[in-house]
Design goal:
Amidase signature (AS) enzymes; Hypothetical upf0131 protein ytfp; alpha+beta
């Protein structure tokens, strides 16, 4: 097996490679934002592998969407891992390792855009590009608590993207908030005359689409919802619908059967032949012996699926096309009655071990609410909608006709702007930890928490009895939190985030804490006491007092070269 130091990445850019690829200074709508690129999308001078070492090539130019992002000021960080040849919704089908769910590493991250989702959820980048042919840009978003935007097919150019099903492929966007996803879409969208599958936005959709008042959202009938034995998903979905209702949105049941019938066509019909057309000859050539397949780095499950696409006939293709036309007419009629649909992004989630024992059937279960999207020419937006008690995220997807991207972004922003549905409380024996520096979301050590399955609880502050210092000679830079002695003045409330960890995970975390940092107990603004990062007193000698900034992130935002 080919492995990398971090299975999130297949290639992390060196400083020299970043300098070569990125103009300086960065200007534009995305100036300074770091992004990751799924490794079936070209980046000039960097190998593209599609998670298959034997397939690798080095492109002379970047994909069209990547060129637009860099021109818009965004900074590429590297190429991310994926289910090989973008074939899978699980994130485990790669010789470069398995990116794990950021909330509980026993569970899958989702795929095929696994590395891109985990890179964003871990705070390694501000946003990431994935691809989405059958749910690859939505399932990983749901499982890792992200925004996952699958734009209208053809709105973003696929020139420079290795095809999965070329007539259905989309470039997708992962972000932690709606605003960033919308900014990325604005920079990357547009007709590309060099891409035969690129489409110009119709004139009637050049102005933002209006939404009815009150907003109307359709939901599958209760008897059409399938949870695959998961006992927590129904309550999470019901809570998301209740949240929509509190925002004044009218929820109405619709017949979801035409969408489900279309979903079955993708893998039970002749569209598998399009996957064979993309890379089937390569797989056949390198599958003559087990040794040849191993040398090329072929994933056996992916090879089985793609080689199965050699069987459908031209007659099969036409029959399925006729059936799809019938289903599209039926779904168009349903969509005309609402502003959008909402469905679970996935009915359940699986552990990495479960996927290993039954890789095809369980993967298929994850596609139930996703596989129809591009066949029916729809756009979709996945939103975080709570967490399972064992960690991983649950998501909902807003679904609308082609060119209604602004509609689902508007509805998504409204969903997230209201009070969030209550998160599932962690078990009573879990330990609460407050962090104030490099382990905060978006900071360089945040992944040390997420890799242990830490559950985010709240952004809050300490009681007004602490001081914060920028410590000297720490890598990455870290602050030191110190409690003011009784009777001493000068204390303040310091911004912190609280997380819950299992006792075992907490023990592993504490064991890895280096000096001069220490884990003690701190008082929060509400008077509760929790475990927290503190600092050994000797390290505060010569450290810079940054208490007036109110927190580490605020201090770093005002940093100047003169400050250590």
């Amino acid at each position: 097996m080919t492995t990398t130091p971090d299975p999130v990445w297949i290639h992390r850019l060196t400083p020299e490679e970043k300098t070569r690829l990125t103009p300086s200074p960065q200007t534009g709508a995305l100036a300074g934002l770091a992004f990751a690129i799924k490794d079936n999308i070209d980046l000039a001078g960097i190998p593209t592998t599609a998670a298959c070492p034997g397939f690798a090539y080095t492109p002379a130019s970047s994909a069209h969407v990547v060129e637009r992002l860099i021109a818009g000021g965004a900074i590429p960080e590297g190429k991310t891992n994926l289910d090989q040849f973008a074939t899978g919704l699980v994130g485990t089908r790669s010789p470069y390792g398995v990116p794990r769910n950021v909330f509980n590493p026993a569970y899958i991250s989702g795929g095929s855009s696994s590395g891109s989702a985990v890179a964003v959820a871990s705070g390694l980048v501000d946003f990431a590009l994935g691809t989405d042919t059958a749910g690859s840009g939505r399932v990983p978003a749901a499982f890792n608590g992200l925004i996952g935007l699958k734009p209208t097919k053809g709105l973003l150019s696929t020139r420079g993207v290795i095809p999965a099903c070329r007539s259905l492929d989309c470039v997708s966007v992962f972000a932690r908030d709606i605003a960033t996803a919308a900014r990325v879409l604005a920079v990357t969208e547009g007709f590309d005359p060099l891409d035969p599958f690129s489409r110009a936005r119709p004139i009637c959709h050049l102005i933002s689409d209006k939404i009815s008042d009150p907003h109307r959202i359709g939901v599958p009938r209760a008897d059409q919802l399938e949870w695959f034995g998961n006992t927590e998903s129904p309550a999470l979905f019901a809570a998301a619908l209740d949240h929509l209702r509190t925002l004044g949105i009218k929820i109405t049941e619709v017949d979801f059967s035409p969408f489900l019938d279309a979903a079955r066509l993708l893998y039970e019909g002749p569209w598998t032949a399009e996957r064979y057309a993309a890379v089937g000859e390569f797989i056949e050539k390198h599958s003559t012996t087990p040794e040849a397949a191993c040398a090329a780095g072929l994933d056996p499950t992916v090879a089985q699926i793609i080689l199965g696409g050699k069987t459908p006939s031209a007659a099969d293709c036409f029959r399925a096309t006729y059936r799809l036309a019938e289903l599209r007419r039926a779904t168009d009629t349903i969509l005309a009655t609402v502003d959008a649909l909402v469905a679970p992004t996935a009915g359940t989630i699986y552990t990495v071990a479960e996927i290993a024992t039954d890789p095809i059937r369980l993967n298929s279960n994850l596609g139930r609410y996703n596989n129809f999207m591009n066949l029916l020419d729809l756009c979709g937006l996945t939103l975080p909608a709570g967490r399972y008690t064992y960690g991983p995220g649950f998501g909902i997807t807003l679904i609308a006709p082609a060119w209604h991207d602004s509609v689902i972004l508007t509805l998504g922003a409204r969903y997230l702007s209201g009070p969030a549905p209550a998160a599932a409380k962690p078990p009573a024996d879990w330990i609460t930890l407050a962090v104030c520096g490099a382990h905060l979301r978006g900071q360089p050590l945040h992944s040390q928490l997420t890799s242990l399955g830490a559950q985010f609880l709240a952004s809050t502050t300490t009681a007004p009895r602490y001081r914060l210092y920028a410590l000297a000679h720490t890598t990455p830079p870290k602050p030191g939190l110190a409690r003011v002695a009784v009777g001493e003045s000068g204390g303040a409330s310091i911004a912190v985030e609280t997380y819950a960890l299992t006792p075992e995970a907490f023990g592993r975390f504490v064991a890895a804490v280096p000096a001069p940092m220490a884990i003690g107990t701190a008082e929060l603004a509400d008077g509760t006491w929790v475990k927290s990062f503190l600092c050994e007193p000797f390290a505060l000698a010569g450290a810079l007092d940054i208490t007036t900034h109110g927190g580490w992130v605020a201090y770093r935002a005002r940093l100047t070269p003169a400050i250590p």
